[in-house]
């Protein structure tokens, strides 16, 4: 049975991805860690792991039934998790819509055999991997705001040592007028 490494996530618009890459270059030394490529910058909602075609189809059907308003995402916080070696960008106050969407997707994934972390959901965009144990974080005062109108299912593909995330399906969130 063929499987794919899948996850539900929020896509960041390409202009925002480029802004974050520039900000990262301006604020972190080259030796701070391995930068995540601009096209791979995203905010994971639910990690599914290795998933077979049947489970993928079921989860996509359930995702298509989600009816939830879109929301604004404010990226205004940064942090460093030394154990996994990750430098991240997140929100000081996660919007309720984001937390609800992630909770729903994680619960559906768990019901279909996709183990979910026991750790509380911490919405973040990974900026650096294999980060040094001591990383100087930039002073607060940065802020990016983007409106979220959809979420997606991604496959993680590794080719010649490079990871690429491919959107397999997208689902809209309701606009404020619906």
TrEMBL record:
Family as reported in the entry's similarity comment: Belongs to the 2H phosphoesterase superfamily. ThpR family.
Database matches in PANTHER family: RNA 2',3'-CYCLIC PHOSPHODIESTERASE
Keywords, alphabetical: Hydrolase
Active site: 42, 124
Gene (UniProt): thpR
Record's keyword annotation contains Secreted: no
InterPro entries attached to this UniProt entry: Cyclic_Pdiesterase, RNA_CPDase
Enzyme category, top tier: hydrolase
The protein's name in its UniProt record: RNA 2',3'-cyclic phosphodiesterase
């Amino acid at each position: 049975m063929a499987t794919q490494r899948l996850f539900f996530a929020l896509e960041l618009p390409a202009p925002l991805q480029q802004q974050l890459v520039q900000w990262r270059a301006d604020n972190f030394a080259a030796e701070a860690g391995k930068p995540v490529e601009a096209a791979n910058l995203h905010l994971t909602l639910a990690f599914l792991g290795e998933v077979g075609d049947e489970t993928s189809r079921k989860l996509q059907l359930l995702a298509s039934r989600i009816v939830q308003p879109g929301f604004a995402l404010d990226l205004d916080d940064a942090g460093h998790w030394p154990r996994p070696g990750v430098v991240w960008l997140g929100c000081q106050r996660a919007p309720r819509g984001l937390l609800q969407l992630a909770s729903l997707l994680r619960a559906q994934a768990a019901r279909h055999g996709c183990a979910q972390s026991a750790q509380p959901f911490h919405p973040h965009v990974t900026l650096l991997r294999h980060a040094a144990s001591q990383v100087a974080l930039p002073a607060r005062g940065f802020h990016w705001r983007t409106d979220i109108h959809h979420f997606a299912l991604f496959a993680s593909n590794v080719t010649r040592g490079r990871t690429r995330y491919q959107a397999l399906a997208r689902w809209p969130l309701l606009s404020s007028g619906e």
